UniProtKB/TrEMBL annotation:
This is ABC transporter substrate-binding protein. Residues 1-22 form the signal peptide. Transmembrane segments: none annotated. Residues 72-304 form the Solute-binding protein family domain. The lineage of its organism: Bacteria, Pseudomonadati, Thermodesulfobacteriota, Desulfobacteria, Desulfobacterales. It comes from Desulfatirhabdium butyrativorans. It comes from the Bacteria.
Length: 305
């Protein structure tokens, strides 16, 4: 499962203290995550919010991924890759024997479809019969703001498990970009069945598969029994993401044992969590840059000097 560079304050119940288990952890069970807001949508091409990516990261995967707590690039759905001497051709060799949650095969044509649908000028070549990609319902925000149309010239499925990206220019972060959420690979078959519904029912190759979404209440995922990467689980049987907008209520539910993780507790509750023997307050160095933005339309900030 990919890790992102989010700054997230979490309080996590000690599972064994809360349930009476000691010693060795056991696989399985349900993890309930309490978060402050619901997802906006679950199509990785169109979402920009953390609560949406949180779900996508468990259901979907990209060609490459980031190592834990690092920006180091590791193999994902691509097992290896080569970069041409001029830095403008990337050849990805894909994992074999991977299937989407709907049972359809992951292959080079799925990669061409997933990323090609975001291109303004679709210079695409499928290896098999390919897919007819429908017009974009809305702007793929990340693809556009990261100027991917100015970077990617064409995408070609050379064979069933080889994809070649031809670039218009040398782009140093291109490989890292291929590990971001917008580059997740989706099931073309599932998408084409109902493009407008895919945003509410994603189908990928990840360790968990989508079960249901009750808007402003909860999203439920279940273990993918056919997950291809046996090194990484999945550890749990089910994930439940509950929407609990009030920080104080969310923290009280954590203390009561109704949820197992609490997103963004109030600052005043953090010392209490640190002292509670039934709670763990993990810390992790942030990997993104925080900033202050000044609204120059307000009188206080109109004098830039």
């Amino acid at each position: 499962m990919r890790k992102r560079g989010w700054i997230v304050a979490l309080c996590m119940v000690m599972v064994f203290a809360a349930t009476g288990f000691a010693a060795e952890p056991k696989k399985g069970g349900t993890l309930i995550f309490g978060r402050g807001g619901d997802s906006v949508g679950l199509d990785p091409a169109y979402e920009t919010d953390g609560n949406s990516f949180m779900i996508c990261d468990n259901v979907l995967e990209a060609l490459v991924e980031y190592a834990d707590e690092s920006t180091k690039i590791e193999p994902g759905l691509a097992k290896s890759w080569e970069i041409s001497p001029d830095g403008k051709t990337y050849t990805f060799h894909l994992q074999k024997g991977v299937t989407f949650h709907d049972g359809t095969p992951f292959n080079a044509d799925a990669v061409v479809f997933s990323l090609g649908r975001q291109m303004k000028e679709r210079k695409l070549k499928f290896f098999g019969k390919g897919y007819e990609i429908p017009p974009q319902e809305k702007t793929p925000e990340y693809w556009v703001t990261m100027e991917m149309d100015n970077t990617v010239d064409s995408i070609e499925a050379v064979d069933e498990y080889t994809v070649v990206f031809k670039l218009k220019r040398v782009e140093a972060p291109f490989l890292a970009n291929m590990g971001m959420d917008f580059a997740d690979i989706i099931s073309p078959t599932a998408f084409l069945k109902n493009p407008k519904e895919f945003i509410r029912h994603p189908v990928g190759t990840g360790p968990f598969r989508f079960v249901k979404w009750v808007k402003d209440d909860q999203i439920v995922l279940e273990k993918n029994p056919n997950y291809w990467d046996k090194r990484g689980g999945p550890y749990l049987d089910k994930l439940v993401f509950r929407t609990i907008p009030d920080n104080s209520v969310r923290f009280l539910e954590l203390k009561a044992g109704s949820i197992h993780l609490c997103q963004f507790p109030n600052a005043a509750d953090i010392p209490m969590a640190a002292k509670d023997p039934n709670l763990i307050l993990p810390t992790q160095a942030g990997m993104n840059i925080g900033y202050l933005g000044f609204n120059h339309t307000k009188p206080l900030w109109q004098n830039v000097h």
